[in-house]
Amino acid sequence: MKFGQQLSQQQKQVQKLAMTQTLQQSIQMLHYNTEDLFKFLESKALENPLLDVKITRDYAEPTYKSRGYQGDDQEELNYLNQIPDNQTSLFEHLVEQIHLNYRDTYLRQLVFFLVEYIDVNGYLTITLEDMMSQTGAEYLQALDALTLLQQLEPAGVGARDLQECLMLQIERDESAPSMAYIVIEEHFEDFAHRRWEKIAKDYQISVSEIQKISDYIQLLTPNPGAGYGEVLSQTIYPDIIVKVNDHQEIEVLSTKSGKPTVAFQSSYFERMAQVEDPEVQEYLNEKKAEFEWLKRSVEQRGDTILNVGTEIVKRQKSFFLDHSAPLVPMKLKEIAEVLNVHESTVSRAVNGKYLQTDAGTFELRSFFTTGLSQGDDSQGDVSADSVQKEIARIIAEEDKRKPLSDQKIVSLLKEKDIEISRRTVAKYRDILAIPSSTKRKRFD
């Protein structure tokens, strides 16, 4: 047997996408929200003397000034400086109150010790026994320190469990129902599990009075310290504005207010262009090309967001004409096919980008909702959003003395040609923060 080897040359043409650095940066720019885009352009401006980053503002918006500049002409506040600082933390708030209200004694030192063991929700995470072991304090001293701590604001701080947290808040509220404190103190488990008939019998009161106590408890906070140390609300500048005229015609506009733009430093370029140095000329040409690329990329980013937003508005037209209307099922892939772009491009264009309407500002991503298949004989899929709204409507109209079970809601939805399982109803109730039928029952 002979083995032979033949060599031949073939020409093959293969199309590949080369992910250059500039292409990667262009893709990343579409993913950036307004703040991230500004940071990116600012970093480029530090490397490129021909590049200037500006923020466009509507004439109606206030001019932000720097408080640190003491000259006659105050400088305009940097865009990132407009992001508010954090609020005072719970720890700082408590320490300040201790300094103001309590004299410098050994007992105050014990209160400071306890503050170190307050978590972000305002609860005490150390037992009095452990405190006594670490500090050498006597039991009555530890108890007095805890009492002083629990007298501080916010009401409920320093509690060791939810029951004590509620009792501390009730104790300070003169408008609390007369039986609220004792019910929570002596029958907390029965109250939480809605064994109200037993409580009513023990105290010889009506169940409707227990219902009033329950309504009041709902107004209290289970996490008294959660509101401290959070970042204050930041201004959101919408990327798109949707307007509806008197003829029910929808107009989709791109907004430049609050958005960073790039400008060319022509005076610097012209001055440096007169320098007869090949290296300087090469440097200028390189930086000018970078500016032109950044300008095109920023404009392309805006155009992509506008095109995606326009198609979203087109498909969700009923919602923009009537904000109570449910969203129709819509997927990223459908928008991508219409615009002839990749699905990932649409995903980047909707994350962190906002659309403003008369009813408020919405993230573009929120308009995408999955559809629930209704079988071959149905008129089409219904959106999860529309089903959730229908469930919320049914529960809102139910008799609160005889609330509907999840299975009964399934039956009512089926009458409207919406077929979903009981488990799905329970899932949507959780999303809508609607409790189960046993917890929705009222006795007044």
From TrEMBL:
GO terms, biological process: DNA-templated transcription initiation
PROSITE patterns, A to Z: SIGMA54_1, SIGMA54_2, SIGMA54_3
Protein name: RNA polymerase sigma-54 factor
Ranges where the RNA polymerase sigma factor 54 DNA-binding domain occurs: 281-442
Alphabetized UniProt keyword annotations: DNA-binding, DNA-directed RNA polymerase, Nucleotidyltransferase, Sigma factor, Transcription, Transcription regulation, Transferase
Family annotation (Pfam families): Sigma54_AID (PF00309), Sigma54_CBD (PF04963), Sigma54_DBD (PF04552)
Keyword Transferase: yes
Gene Ontology molecular function, alphabetical: DNA binding; DNA-binding transcription activator activity; nucleotidyltransferase activity; sigma factor activity
GO cellular-component term (any): DNA-directed RNA polymerase complex
Species of provenance: Vagococcus lutrae LBD1
UniProt similarity note: Belongs to the sigma-54 factor family.
This protein's record includes keyword Transferase: yes
Domain RNA polymerase sigma factor 54 core-binding: 82-268
